[in-house]
Predict the structure.
Amino acid sequence: MQYKEFLADFYDVFLEDLAKSRKMSSAELRKVINEGLANTPEKAVEYGLFDKVLYRQELIVQLRKKLGLDADEDVKFVGISQYDEARPGKKNFSADNKIAVLYAEGTVLDGQGANGTIGDKRYVNAIEDILEDDKIKAIVLRVNSGGGSALASENIWYALSKAKEAGKPLIVSMGDYAASGGYYIACMADSIYAEPNTITGSIGVFRMVPSIEKMMANKLGITMDSVKTGPFALGLNVMQDMSEEEARRAQVSTEEMYRLFIKRVADGRKMKPEAVNEIAQGRVWSGVDAKKIGLVDKLGDLNAAIKSAAKLGKIKDYRTVIYPSIKDPMQQLLEEFLGEGSDDEAKMGKIMQKEFPELVPAYELYRQAKTSHGFQARLQVVVPF
């Protein structure tokens, strides 16, 4: 039910934005779509969804005129990512004051982590570097993550809390996802910005303990006996099902981690734990609804968050610096050539993205299952739109 509600919110925002750009009401647009009125290019023009119907060659002629090009000159096109990078921004390279933009994208993992993941060791080091730079007056944490390791999330939360205690304002900007562990690391911010359709919340903890005991015994006839000094000496073992007492202890520790998550949110958002629990329990919210219930302060993009950070940092002239630092391309190439710092998982991900894009979601789930050790604070369902 909650995903149906979220999808309805997403659709409402989509209709509102599209209607505004086409200078029509949301009700008119909804009628056109629901009744299938614009089912041909000509009908789409009639109902205001398109401006004109043109062949590509005709479009290029019009573009040449708008750009002031001669009839034989080529029109140079750029991809959407290049266009996005070319947007004007705050690039005063002479300014002494800096705002750190800490990009936290991907699954939250224990350890160093690769590019495209949030390894707690790597991010704690980045936050400590930010803390040591007196010219950095504020931090913007850009979160695009469905979470991951609860312990890693706690470690990153602690490092960010120390940066706040040192007097560096922290503003969070949420992207597509800022859920579970992604929300955990964001909840203590001075202010949280989300997009209307950001998937956020999912405040919850779970733990996976696989067991292959019955499969090995029933399918292969393989059983395992153990000699141990105490009832819990083996720990949680995939070759043996948990005993009732082991399951009870695992449940108790999981609930304790959940209570800590609730406390972090309650302290950060200045809410009562009971109120947080009412909106937690793994439930997801759109950015619009998250603002209504107090998980988010404002709706806005990354630029809005940066402006807010500048205001809290009491600076006017500033430049943004990106963290974690990215290696120079030549250094990366040299390391790969020498076999140093290579990441087989990252390489496989690139191959999958290029050759089998439709299988990427399944591959990501497989990778996450491999790394799901200990308590997990992660969005359990990937919601494609």
In short: The chain has 16 helices and 13 strands. The longest strand covers residues 136-145.
